[in-house]
User: What shape does this take?
Amino acid sequence: MKTNLYNYILELGDNCLIAGQRLGELCGHGPSLETDIACTNISLDLFGQTRSYFQYAADVKGDNATEDSIAFLRYEQQYKNVLLVEQPNRDFAYTVARQYLFDVFHLLLLEKLQFSQDMTLSAIAKKSIKEVSYHVRFSGDWIKRLGDGTDESHEKMQAAINDLWTYTNELFEVTEAAKSLIDDGIAIDAATLKESYYEKVSALLEEATLTIPESKYFQKGGKSGVHTEHLGYLLADMQYMQRAYPNMTW
Amino acid sequence: MISTKQHIDKELIPILEKVSDPEIPVLSIMDMGVVRSAKLIKGVVEVSITPTYTGCPAMDVIGDDITQALKEHGYEAKVKLILAPAWTTDWITERGRKALQEYGIAPPLNPDADKEALLGEKRIVKCTNCGSTNTKLVSQFGSTACKALFKCDDCQEPFDYFKCLK
Ligand SMILES: [Zn+2]
Assistant: This one.
């Protein structure tokens, strides 16, 4: 098996899966009907992208792996998503801030990944770009509305940004798997996205009258399977059916 | 270079035209542009379909419906999902656009107009009920991933707009 490729696909897919799962939690619980539908639509897009990645990962892995076994039958330490996307929905400001900080990175990454020498990754990226352009527009709009809104909404959005900022740096960490695939033009060197990421995010935060955090301390670990306490609860919820009734189908 | 052209055997077209999009029943999957190729190879029809959105839950159903429709005409079918080239709203046929409009979903505008409409900058999306363009965006996301929700300020009816995807 091409272990590095497999791990790299998981790195890409797990971010979509976990971000999608978090947003999906808002189904029926959104602050308004429109935002509820928007968040679950974005969640659905992300699950669609996850399926494409995991179907490919299953091919690469062989050994009877399927998209479902990859999604539902791994343990916490085997997930490679960044810590950012597993952070819980504390309030709506927190949810959109988390989403925005991920969306900007996601779009920058896909814009490069569409030129990957790996034809499947390139096809998934080209398809996903169209969807993610809508995601970043939605989350960005809400950052502005809440940041430049009432005193209370501003305060909550600022608190969310301050809190989540500490997870942004991990996005640009280059894993061993990625490193081994960059020279062949298959993987993207995430470190090269850092500058434009912070430029884009800072510009929007300023427009939203928010203060850009000056934190020098960043959390990391997700990409190597060391997660915050929140992921375990998310997985317990997500994997419950398959664990309780192995091999069950609809 | 991946071809954006469709390759569909002539005799299969009428069969595939009868398969409709499960979420928009008035629309044939052919008018939707999701069937990219259908060829009879050694007694088996190989069909390639492409999703409108990656998360579109209709794709599994469409695959089953195609298999079923072909089976009724005595063909064995193999349906494959392909991602490249990525689907675009340009592939919706003229007949498909009309069907959408009549069903109550405003068909997609060109990319620039679409952006203006979705950012609420211009009132240009035509109400499917009364035809007025005095309409406004309610939500960028509607009942399915491909649609946005609009409301008409003349007749007060809400309606869906099929977002441009290019
Ligand atoms: Zn009207």
In short: Residues 33-61 of chain A form the longest helix (29 residues). Residues 3-210+218-244 of chain A form a domain with the Ferritin fold (CATH 1.20.1260.10). The pocket of zinc ion is lined by residues B 127, 129-130, 132, 152, 154-155, 157 (CB under 6 Å). The radius of gyration of chain A is 18 Å.
